[in-house]
Amino acid sequence: MSIDATDRAIIEALQGGLPLISNPYFEVARSLNLQEAELTARLAAMKESGAIRRIAAAPNHYKLGMTANGMTVWDVDDSVLSELGPKIGALPFVTHSYERPRALPDWPYNLFAMVHGSSREEVEEKRQEIVAILGDALRASDTLYSTRILKKTGLRLRNKGD
Questions:
Q1: What's the helix, strand, coil split of the chain in %, to 5?
Q2: Which terminus of the chain is more solvent-facing, meaning fewer CB atoms within 10 Å of its CB: N or C?
Q3: Confidence class of residue 162 from pLDDT cuts 50, 70 and 90?
Q4: Nearest of 25, 36, 31 to residue 9 by alpha carbon
Q5: Which region holds residue 151: left if phi is over 0, alpha if psi is between -120 and 50, else beta?
Q6: How far apart are CA 99 and CA 73, in angstroms?
Q7: Alpha-carbon distance 110 to 75, whole Å?
Q8: What is the pLDDT of residues 7-40, one digit of tens each?
Q9: Is 60 left (phi over 0), alpha (psi -120 to 50) or beta?
Q10: Range from 41-50, 107-116, 119-128, 153-162 carrying the lowest mean pLDDT
């Protein structure tokens, strides 16, 4: 998983986010004296190699008025988790969802889904939709509400001297 100087320059150019313009990859490529096709090919290769995981938006939900942010956690029957998990992740109000191993006996949850809303009541209404989808496979659940944003940045490279 090594990157060359051009890959490093690409990461450094993107670590603050894409420019909010109609053709951001073209502009980033231009600023690095690259063709847009080379930039996107290098990004795809870095993703394929595991050097980067993804390029995604990281909205500040608080600034969007979504101040009740709840990580819903679910103890779901393992035999149907691979079927039900993607259904939960596809819900329009779930921003990310993933499977995690349980830490028994204290933590029985194996499915996590982040739900955002403007109030805890709204999050609870959305949570009930998840309950309905999970049905009889659901054994236990909880919601862990955010109290502040801990991190809203992506990959950051250190300078070679750091």
A1: 40, 20, 40
A2: C
A3: very low
A4: 31
A5: beta
A6: 10
A7: 5
A8: 999 999 998 888 889 999 999 999 999 999 999 9
A9: beta
A10: 153-162
